[in-house]
Amino acid sequence: MACPGSLTVTIFGAVPTQHETRANRRALRVKHPIPNRKPHLRGLNPAQLEAVLALEGPVLVIAGAGSGKTRTLAYRIAHLLENGVEPRKIAAVTFTNRAASEMRERVAAMVGKAARSLTLSTFHSLGARILRAHGKRLGLPDHFAIYSTADQLALVRRILAEEIHIAATAGEEVYDVKRVLSDISAWKNRMLTPAETRQEVAEGHVRGNRSDDYAVLAADMFPRYEQALRACGACDFDDLLLLPVTLLRDHPEVREAMWRRWHYLMVDEYQDTNSVQLEMARLLAGPRRNLCVVGDDDQSIYAWRGADLRNILDFERHFPGARVVVLEENYRSTQRILEAANGVIAHNPARRPKQMRTENGLGPKIDYWEFDRHTERSAEEREAQMVASEIGIRRFHERLGWRDFAVLYRANHQARPLEEALRRTNVPYRVVGGTSYFDRKEIADAAAYLRVLVNPRDDLSLRRIVNFPTRGIGRTTLLRLVDAARVEQVPITEAMRRVRQIDPVNAAQAEAVEAFVDLTDRARERLHHVQLEIHEGRRADVSLASWVEEFLREIRLTDAVQAESSNERMAQARANNLRDFIQSVGDYERQTWADAPLPDEELDWEPPTLNGFLQGVSLYADADPDNASDDPGADEVTLVTLHSAKGLEFSHVFLVGLEEEILPHARSVQEASNELAPDPIAEERRLFYVGITRARHRLTLSSCRTRRRGAESIPRQPSRFLKEIPAELLDVRLADGGSSLSDSDKESLRENFFDQMREMLG
After folding, report:
1. What is the mean pLDDT of residues 461-470?
2. Which one has a higher pLDDT value, 695 or 433?
3. Active-site annotation holder among 21, 25, 48, 69
4. Which of 128, 138, 538, 746 is the most buried if burial means most Cβ atoms within 10 Å?
5. Within a 10 A sphere around the Cβ of 30, how many other Cβ atoms?
6. Is the pLDDT of residue 169 over 60?
7. One of 48, 70, 94, 509 is an active-site residue; which one?
8. Positive or negative CA dihedral for 261, 264, 265, 266?
9. Structurally, how many domains does the chain consist of?
C-alpha cells in the first residue's frame, strides 16, 4: 500500500502536476519521525541518519538509484557544522558542475551563509585550485592554460604533422587522433609515465594488430605531447588530477598544508572515480582518514573514461575499518519500475547486493513495443513516430508538461529519426549534448586571443589566431617562426620579436609579424591597467567585459567570422554568439564580486581576472561536456543518451533501440567474446539499469525487428537484457500504429476532451 502523499497515478483520476509531484516526493522523506531529533536531522530515514551521524573515519555509503544521496550528503555537512566543525575544514567533491551547484544549493538552504566557506567543487576544479597555489613547484606558470579536448586534439595533430611527419591528406586524417589521445589519457589515469608506457607497450606488442599500432603511435606521442603542453604553459584535464597527486605525494609541505586546510572530505559518485582520483582522495584524507564516499556500483557506466569499479567494491581494503551504510529506499520510481531494475541488475556477478524498495505504489505496467517494417516506413521510423504520438497523447490525457517526458538511447545517431518525428508532430524538444557552446569556432577564436594575452607561452592558441583575421602572416612564415622557436627553445612569441633575424623571412612578412606583436603587447598592457583599476576600485565604469568587447572590436573578429559564414542567417548567429561570450565575461565578474567575503568571513576568494574567467570556461566546458548548452528550465521533451541521462529523472521515460549490438553495444559484445576484462556486458547492463531508474511513473521500452543499414533492411534481435525483466511486469505488444491507451482510457479521453482543453488553455 502506498504511503500518504506518494505518487500513484490512476487512469481516470487527475494526474498530479509537476509541483504536486515534487511536494509528494518531499513528503515521503519525512515518514520516519524519530522523537527528540535535532532539527537538522529530521526528515531522514534510518539508513540516511546512520550515514549522517558517522563523522569520524572512513565511511562508504552505497546509495541506490533515487535513494536521496545528495540529501544525505547535505545533511551530513549540516551535522558537521552543528558539531562545531569550521566550514573551511570541509570539502565535498563530485564530477559535474551541475552536481556541485545542486549540492551547494541544498546545503545553503540548510545552513545559510556558512555554505559560502565550504569547498564544494568538481575533482578537476579542486585540482586546479591546488595547482594555482602550488603549481610553481612543478614548473607551471602562474597563469597556466587549461586545454579543452579540442585543444588537445589540435596539439596531437600538430605533433603528428611536424614531429612524426604524419599529416592529413586530402582533408582526411591518416590516424584517428581521438584514439591516440584516448590512449594517452588512459595511461595518465593509471598514473603511468611515458617511460613506463613505452615499456608496457613494448612488452605487449603483437605485430600486425591494428590496436597495437595505435598503442605504439600513442606511446611515441606521449613524451612529445607532455613536452609540448609544458612548453605552452598548459595542462590538460588529466593533468588537473595527476599533477596535484604528484604534488601531494612528492612534496610534504604541500601535503601537510592540505591536511591543515581540510579535515573532512566527502566524494560523491565514487563509483566513477579512476586510479588518480582514488589516490587524490587517499592523500587528502591523510592521517585523520575522515573520508566519506557515496556511490552506487550498479551505476558505474564510465569505464571508457577510466572509471574503475574496483574502487567502490574494494573500499574496505583501501581503507581498513571503514563503516558501510546501504541506502535501499527509493523515493523516485514506482514499485514495478524498481522490480524491473532489480531483476536486470541481479544478473551482474561483481556487485554489492542490495534490493531497492519504494512506498510510491505499484504503478502501471512497463510498456514494451516491437516494431517491424510497414509499407513505406522503416521500423525505426515507426518507432520514432509512435514515441512522438504517444508523448502528445499522454501529455494531454495526464495534463503534464513537455519537460516531464524523455527519450533515452544508446548512441547519438539514434536521435535523428526521433527529431524528425517530433518536428512533424510539433513537439518541442531539446537534445542534450552535441557541440559545446565553447567549441564553436567563433567562441574558440575569441578565447584563443584572450589566452595569448594572459599566457604568451600558449603556442597552440597563438597558431590558431595569428592570421585570423587575415594580417599577412601565412603558413610559410609561421612555420619559419616555429622552426626558429624550436631551435632556440623559446615560445613562438619570443621568436616573433626577433623576426628580422630569421632567414628567409622578407620585409613585408616581418612587418606583419611585428604589427601582431605590437597589437598583443598593447592589449596586454591595457588589460594590466584595467585589472588594476577594477581591483583597486579606482573607476566604477571599468569592467573586464567592456575591455573584452573593445578588444574584439579592435581586431574586427566579428567582421571576420561573419565574412566566412555561408549565409546571412549563420553570420548573424555567430555574431550573436560573440555577444553572448562577452556577456559571459560580465556574468563571471558579477558572480565573483557577489561571492566576495564579508568582513567576518574567511573565504578562498580572488577578485575577477581574465585568467580566472578563462580557467572557469575550460573547467565548465570539459567537466560537463554533455550539458554545456542545456536549458533545463525549458518546457521541452528531452532527447538524451543513456550516459548523459545519469543524474536526471522524468515522469515518463521512453527507452528505444533495445536490440543486440545497440544495447549491449556491438563493441562490447565483441570484447566480451575475446574475454577481455573488465566485463563489458556487465557495464552495458548497468547502463540499462540507469535508463530504467530514470523513470518516476511510467517506463516504455521499444525495439525494432529490422533496422536500416544504407539501402538494406537488416534483421535485429531484441536485447538480451529484456529477458531479464520479470515477464509479469511487462505489457508486450507488436506496435500497430495505435495508442497504448486502453479502450476505457480512450472513452474517458473522448468524454473529457473539451473540459480538459478549456483547462489547458486557461
Report:
1. 93
2. 695
3. 69
4. 128
5. 12
6. no
7. 70
8. negative
9. 4
Point out the catalytic residue in the list 382, 694, 698, 707: 694
Same domain assignment for residues 152 and 166:
yes
Q: What percent of the chain has pLDDT over 70?
A: 85
Kindly state the DSSP code that residue 734 receives in the 8-state scheme. E
Does 70 participate in catalysis according to the annotation? Answer: yes
* pTM reported for the whole predicted model: 0.84
CATH classification at residue 95: 3.40.50.300
Q: Distance between CA atoms of 577 and 599, rounded to whole angstroms? A: 38
The string of pLDDT tens digits covering residues 356-409 is: 999 999 999 999 999 987 666 888 899 999 999 999 999 988 989 999 999 999
pLDDT in tens, 113-125: 888 889 999 999 9
Q: What is the CATH number of the domain that holds 518?
A: 1.10.486.10
Spatial distance between the Cα atoms of 345 and 354, rounded to a whole number of angstroms: 10
Is 340 part of any domain? no
Q: Mark whether 268 is an active-site residue.
A: yes
Q: What is the DSSP string of 539-608?
A: -TT--HHHHHHHHHHHTTHHHHHHHTSSSHHHHHHHHHHHHHHHHHHHHHHHHHHHTPPPTT--------
Give yes or no: 694 in active site. yes
Cα gap 536→264, rounded to integer Å: 35
Q: Which of 273, 299, 638, 641 is catalytic?
A: 299
* Residue at 356 is within a domain: no
Active-site residue, 299 included: yes
Alpha helices by DSSP H, 349-414: 379-398
pLDDT tens per residue, range 97-109? 888 888 888 888 8
Q: What is the three-state SS of 136-162? A: HHHCCCCCCEECCHHHHHHHHHHHHHH
Q: Which residue has the cell 473522448?
A: 750
Final residue belonging to a domain, choices 206, 232, 258:
232
- Asked if the structure places residue 75 within a domain, the reply is yes
* Distant-in-sequence, close-in-space partners of 129: CB < 8 Å, separation ≥ 6: 121, 604
Q: 461-471 burial by CB neighbour count: b if 16+ within 10 A, else e? A: bbbbbbbbeee
Residue 715 structural domain: 366-436+630-760
Q: What is the pLDDT of residues 724-755, one digit of tens each?
A: 999 999 999 876 545 555 555 555 555 555 55
Question: Looking at 307, 330, 353, which one is the last position of a domain?
Answer: 330
In this structure, what DSSP letter does residue 112 have? Answer: G
Terminal-to-terminal C-alpha distance of the chain:
35
- 151, 269, 339, 458: the catalytic one is 269
- The answer to whether residue 727 is domain-embedded is yes
